């Protein structure tokens, strides 16, 4: 499919599943090449249990693989490649900051995909309070829905982030709007290099990153902005926010950028307590302008409101690290070393 998609027109996409309901895994988009489009690549709208597998999207205007309203569940996006996904000023605000994979409901499977070279994001989980468009319902809350699967995805050379979870995600058992029992969302096995940030969550509950590899990203390997304690009941893997079995590399000369380049902060810690960090390896934070650990900043928040939040560490390893941490101010954060590995 070549030179398809009509700019400035909603619904005019190269491939568009429009309010088709439950497809029961009997329908698919498989083995397609979608090149040089003017309005996205594959849009899934009001559609459930569709298979999108083994496709290549290249030079795409706006979001490439696009889940639209936030009602869509149980779709499978796997073994797809998105190359050079770039900004479009001819559709919606979402296409001004596009993602190769744009997900509005977490109860979908996103596995074994790759995003290479793009203006903004590799994967964006943009979860609204309620679904939008013709799927609007006050009885559905995508921000509370349990994660389907996010596993073994790869991102490199994005203008902004490899993975962005924005603006909020508070996964709950059962996923109902009135549920208050945290059910951790395990994002598994993401590899990101040469982006502005490898991965970032913003307003979170029990979000967990497992087996992430972050290399040569500019501002941060992994950054967590806030953890809302009303949505996190315990520390650790059972019901809490967690970063576990991650490898974060400040610089790798084979990837270029010169002898002074280094990721500003390998692991950026959140405001408010509740984060546990376990079995994380931090490598090559040995240059003046970088540090293995740092503290996030929220624009517009007064400094008097920030400080002293507790982060718990265990089984942390440092390799070629001369700058373990850098702080903006005194009393900014409490780093609790559970087993001596941090200190």
UniProtKB/TrEMBL annotation:
Pfam families: CEMIP_beta-hel (PF24606). Keywords: Signal. The keyword Signal applies. It comes from Scyliorhinus torazame (Cloudy catshark). It comes from the Eukaryota. The lineage of its organism: Eukaryota, Metazoa, Chordata, Craniata, Vertebrata. This is CEMIP beta-helix domain-containing protein. Residues 2-162 form the CEMIP beta-helix domain. Coiled coil: none annotated.
